[in-house]
Specification:
The complex is a heterodimer.
Chain A: H1 4-7, H2 25-34, H3 39-54, H4 92-100, H5 103-110, E1 113-118, E2 121-127, H6 129-133, E3 137-140, H7 141-147, H8 149-155, H9 166-174, E4 178-183, E5 193-198, E6 209-214, E7 219-227, E8 235-237, E9 240-245, E10 250-259, E11 263-266, E12 268-273, E13 278-287, E14 290-293, E15 296-299, E16 305-315, E17 319-328, E18 334-344, E19 348-357, E20 365-374, E21 380-389, E22 395-404, H10 407-414, H11 420-436, H12 441-456
Parallel strand pairs in A: 1-5, 4-6, 5-7, 6-9, 7-10, 8-11, 9-12, 10-13, 11-14, 12-15, 13-16, 14-17, 15-17, 16-18, 17-19, 18-20, 19-21, 20-22
Antiparallel strand pairs in A: 1-2, 3-4
Helix pairs in contact in A: 2-3, 3-9, 7-8, 11-12
Chain B: E1 3-12, E2 15-25, E3 30-34, H1 41-49, E4 54-63, E5 66-67, H2 73-79, E6 81-84, E7 91-95, H3 96-110, H4 118-131, E8 142-143, H5 149-163, E9 167-171, H6 179-193, E10 198-203, H7 207-212, E11 216-221, E12 224-229, H8 232-240
Parallel strand pairs in B: 3-10, 3-11, 6-9, 9-10
Antiparallel strand pairs in B: 1-2, 1-4, 4-5, 7-8, 11-12
Helix pairs in contact in B: 4-5, 5-6
The chains are: A alpha/beta, B alpha/beta.
Chain lengths: ~450, ~250
């Protein structure tokens, strides 16, 4: 059993004292200089910053008025910690944080390599040798920019551009750390690559960039868990994930996000899928104050496919505004979106499912399904499906259900000696089971535990 | 008396269904209740199990001499009362294995017993499932999801065998079963009863009674037991139908 107070207990911060709140051109220049970045990246940052200043806040979704951009720390690095390949070299208090989160165990047992982001710098990065020999790159994003500048330049913010929306522009200006994965053509990585992100300072923004390139015929998967300690003032997470799936390639991206309950989680994730490629998203969203997250797949190659599976749990004053977006831009593409949301104790889940089938994408098939479960009368669930279809020869459908655990089910469980709380937990687990079973074992266990915690929590935090 | 229903009146959504029903069951006895559609047989099952929609307006239910009418369903189950329902609920996403494990854990805990380790438990559950006439793979299917009528009934019986109740009320457990399955279920019911388990068997059909051979047969009409006896009562029923039994002079609303 995980204790939620363990997860939300901050470490004594190792920040350099000069970590400043607020954003300015000087700050952006400082970030770039401190990271010894190439000139094009500095230009990219400054251009993004200009766009950020001009762009308005999203015109849909939950109220973000409590988010004060001047109160956020956009860049900080812990002490003098360098990237390290050995667990031994990780500083003790940082290690404690990871141990509390159960990372080393998970990593040792199952996982191929681990990149964990601590504040804005990676402190721990481990990759098994055999993957290196196969030509696979699994690197901290800052380091990748220095080691593979051409590769990064070719793909960086090409799936999501700085012009997409305000938070993409903000990300482009202040991004720091993250993960870079490159799987060469024809190579298969059988175990998931994993990273564990964690914010650990008051008002600390987290702007990690994940860039994944899967060449033709390659296969792999990546999984990350995100968790952040709780502080009094709100923090912001505006990460960005870009995935390029080549011809006949297949990739699965899984994430379990459990941000502190005062975090604004405004994350952008997008994949571009080539001919006959397959992209799979599996996500669990818990925690945070407000979440806006709609992983997107652009099916630009003929016969390509996207699967989106997700769970959102809104507890207490949380609003989980999540969903998925798929653009069918080529013939015979197919997509399946399955979302499950749970709302408890006044929590609000909103599902936005958008499927666009462009003219010429003949023979495309899209299916959208969202099931919402309300655990009490105070809670809310909203489903907003949108199908935009500009082609006749296609098949698209959506279905949505909103339900409460029925009295009949509760009675049936009761008649077998199962008490109400246990029955509710069992039914909730059953409700999300189709998605949890897609996660690797350790993460499935973690997801179930987090859900269990949410079930126990009153949720009246914040 | 082990299980005693005294002058029980029950209404559902303000509609009276049971109208002063009494039934006394001793330990180890098998009682059959027969009656036409709408006579209140399923209401009796639900009232005994404690369904919140079934309101007891008069009378009481005693188990081992203590009233259970105000107990929550799970508390009745923990005391050893089991109900097999006519249309058991689907529990989406919950496997039969997890469902039974959760139920058994709860019941064992209340009895101060330990839950067997996973290997032993799995074997035990598989045996009970197979005995009831279901393939072992049903353990990994979701509870009653996509089950045929007969399969649901078999699972109800398997659950009874797993949870080892002291009193089981079985509502139309014989419907949807073919003759071989019926014989098998009857055998399991009878075997269970010989181990100090009392059974109340509710049915439309006499066939199962031929195999189970209850100690008593009761005829229920319009929310009351109107006649009780042994197997001879079924002959009367066969020849003359339910009309031959006196119907209480209470108007149903």
């Amino acid at each position: 059993m995980i204790d939620i107070t363990q997860l939300e207990k901050p470490n004594q911060s190792r920040y350099a004292k000069k970590a400043k709140k607020g954003l300015s051109e000087a700050m952006i220049r400082y970030i770039s200089k401190d990271k010894k970045e190439p000139d094009w990246m500095l230009k990219h940052r400054l251009q993004s910053y200009e766009i950020f200043l001009k762009k308005s806040m999203p015109k849909f979704g939950p109220d973000l008025s409590e988010l004060n951009f001047d109160e956020i720390i956009y860049y900080a690095k812990p002490g003098k910690i360098k990237n390290t390949h050995s667990w031994k070299n990780v500083p003790k208090d940082i290690k404690r944080t990871f141990e509390r989160l159960g990372i080393p165990k998970a990593e040792r047992k199952y996982l191929a390599g681990a990149g964990a982001q601590y504040e804005s710098q990676s402190v721990y990065h481990n990759l098994k040798e055999k993957y290196g020999k196969l030509g696979i790159i699994f690197e901290d994003m800052d380091k990748a920019l220095n080691l593979y500048p051409e590769l990064v330049k070719k793909y960086f913010m090409k799936a999501v551009t700085m012009r997409d929306h305000k938070f993409a522009a903000l990300h482009g200006a202040v991004w720091s750390g993250g993960t870079f994965i490159y799987i060469p053509a024809g190579v298969t990585v059988d175990q998931p690559l994993q990273a564990y992100f964690r914010m650990n300072a008051k008002s600390m923004g987290q702007f990690e960039h994940t860039l994944i390139i899967v060449e033709a015929g390659a296969q792999g998967s990546y999984i990350e868990c995100c968790s952040a300690p709780k502080y009094d003032s709100p923090s912001l997470h505006a990460g960005l994930v870009e995935i390029f799936v080549g011809e006949n390639a297949r990739f699965r991206y899984s994430s379990v996000e459990n941000w502190s309950r005062n975090t604004f989680n405004l994350n952008t994730k997008r994949a571009i899928v080539d001919k006959n490629g397959i992209m799979e998203w599996v996500s669990g969203n818990m925690g945070s104050k407000r979440t806006m997250l709609y992983p997107c797949s652009i099916l630009r190659g003929e016969g390509s496919r996207a699967d989106h599976l997700g769970i959102a749990f809104a507890n207490g004053d949380q609003i989980q505004d999540t969903g998925a977006k798929v653009v069918h831009a080529a013939k015979n593409t197919s997509s399946k979106i399955v979302m499950k949301s749970i709302s408890k104790n006044g929590g609000e889940s909103i599902f936005r499912g958008m499927v666009k089938i462009l003219r010429g994408a003949k023979g495309s098939v899209a299916h959208l399904k969202c099931d919402s479960l309300l655990l009490d009368d105070k809670s809310k669930a909203n489903t907003i499906p949108a199908l935009e279809i500009d082609e006749n020869d296609v098949s698209a459908g959506h279905e949505a259900t909103t339900g409460k655990i029925s009295d009949e089910q509760m009675f049936y469980c009761g008649s077998r000696g199962i008490e109400p709380d246990t029955a509710t937990g069992m039914i909730v687990n059953g409700f999300i089971e189709p998605i949890v079973k897609e996660l690797p074992l350790e993460y499935a266990v973690e997801m179930n535990r987090l859900i269990e915690l949410e079930m126990e929590e009153a949720g009246a935090v914040g | 008396m082990f299980f005693n229903i005294k002058n029980l009146s029950v209404e559902v959504q303000n509609k009276p269904i049971l109208k002063g029903l009494s039934l006394a069951v001793k330990a180890g006895e098998i009682h059959a209740i027969m009656g036409p559609n709408g006579s209140g047989k399923s209401t009796l099952t639900n009232a005994v199990a404690g369904h919140p929609k079934y309101k007891i307006t008069a009378g009481d239910i005693f188990f081992n001499g203590v009233s259970i009418k105000d107990l929550a369903p799970h508390k009745r189950a923990l005391q050893g009362i089991f109900a097999a329902f006519q249309s058991p609920q689907t529990v989406s996403g919950v496997s039969v294995y997890d469902f039974l494990k959760t139920a058994l854990t709860s019941i064992k805990k209340s009895r101060g017993e330990k839950i067997p380790d996973p290997i032993v438990l799995r074997k035990f559950l598989r045996e009970k499932i197979e005995e009831a006439g279901l393939e072992a793979e049903f353990l990994y299917r979701n509870v009653n999801e996509g089950f045929s009528g007969g399969e649901k009934k078999k699972l109800e019986i398997a659950q009874m065998a797993v949870l080892e109740p002291r009193l089981a009320i079985l509502d139309e457990i014989d419907s949807g079963l073919d003759i071989d399955a019926l014989k098998n279920i009857a055998k399991l019911i009878k075997r269970g009863a010989s181990k100090k388990r009392s059974i109340i068997l509710i049915t439309h059909h006499q066939r199962i009674l031929e195999y189970v051979k209850p100690n008593f047969i009761h005829i229920m009409v319009c929310g009351k037991i109107v006649e009780s006896g042994d197997s001879r009562i079924t002959h009367k029923l066969e020849q003359k139908g339910y009309k031959s039994f006196k119907i209480p002079l209470i108007k149903s609303t």
